[in-house]
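PROTEIN DESIGN WORKSHEET
SECTION A - STRUCTURE
LENGTH: 302
TOKENS:
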């Protein structure tokens, strides 16, 4: 695989912004806003679980002195744990890429879930000494927390407390059982045809988010009963159809605002609000601030 790697002598050296939020518990953030590749390195011993989130762009993890590589793409996460050997971070970050990493010792992590450890696969007695790897998509709710960590703009005296709260929120969202539907508990999902129909429903509402169909129209279009649409959507996506759509629209609007290419009215129209006041109200409900104030906080970071 070595031949496909970028020659590292041409790569700039970077450093994580690191916050120790507790003993054996760290949050690392990094923004490569340059037009060149940057490399990050950090020692981590085998007692730590690593959660890596690519908020924007893409990056490549290098292992075993370059003998193995693992890509992490935009809006994807990567969980790494190997009790048999250290897994130091050696990361090549692509231009214009953002990363957030949470590092926590297995002992501390196990304590967080001591009451509910059974449903986290790699904490079972059979698996706790095995290496573990899982990649996945960043959900809209996780994306909000990740952006809050990167765009942190509060008094430095509360930074540790703020990051601690966000790190716990991120872990709870990652292991939210409703997002990873349990086949045994949800017989509906055993029928692959129904699963395909529910995924089609999600695609329809996202594609037509400015003028979404009613629930009945959506059910008719995917040829499922209204009851099965509601139950199935909740099982697969952990939320009702319109609550999911609301989160998606607000996240879409937030990203559109950040580009600076549309004003507040235009963004509101694109996500289906005919008046700017309704859009501003919805945005404030979701993020606790107005689109204009959010834009000001983002621009002050750059």
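SECTION B - SEQUENCE
RESIDUE ASSIGNMENT:
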């Amino acid at each position: 695989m070595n031949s496909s790697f970028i020659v590292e002598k041409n790569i700039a050296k970077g450093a994580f912004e690191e916050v120790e939020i507790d003993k054996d518990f760290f949050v690392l953030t990094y923004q490569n806003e340059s037009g060149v590749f940057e490399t990050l390195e950090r020692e981590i011993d085998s007692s730590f679980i690593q959660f890596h989130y690519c908020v924007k762009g893409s990056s490549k993890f290098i292992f075993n002195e370059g003998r193995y590589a693992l890509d992490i793409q935009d809006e994807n996460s990567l969980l790494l744990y190997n009790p048999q050997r250290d897994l130091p971070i050696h990361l090549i970050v692509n231009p214009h890429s953002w990363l957030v990493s949470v590092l926590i010792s297995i002992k501390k992590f196990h304590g967080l879930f001591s009451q509910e450890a059974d449903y986290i696969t790699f904490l079972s007695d059979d698996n706790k000494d095995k290496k573990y790897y899982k990649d996945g998509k960043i959900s809209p709710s996780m994306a909000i927390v990740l952006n809050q960590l990167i765009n942190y703009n509060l008094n430095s005296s509360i930074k540790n407390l703020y990051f601690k709260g966000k790190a716990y929120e991120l872990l709870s969202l990652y292991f939210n059982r409703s997002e990873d539907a349990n086949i045994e508990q949800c017989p509906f999902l055993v029928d692959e045809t129904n699963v395909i129909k529910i995924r089609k429903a999600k695609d329809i509402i996202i594609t037509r988010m400015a003028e979404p169909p009613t629930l009945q129209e959506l059910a008719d279009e995917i040829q499922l009963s209204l009851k099965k649409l509601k139950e199935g959507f909740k099982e697969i996506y952990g939320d009702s159809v319109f609550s999911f759509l609301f989160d998606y629209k607000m996240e879409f609007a937030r990203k559109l605002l950040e580009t600076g290419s549309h004003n507040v009215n235009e963004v509101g129209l694109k996500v289906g609000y005919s008046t700017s006041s309704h859009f501003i109200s919805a945005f404030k409900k979701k993020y606790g601030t107005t689109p204009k104030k959010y834009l000001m906080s983002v621009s002050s970071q750059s």
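SECTION C - NOTES
The CA atoms of residues 255 and 267 lie 10 Å apart.
The first strand starts at residue 12 and ends at 13.
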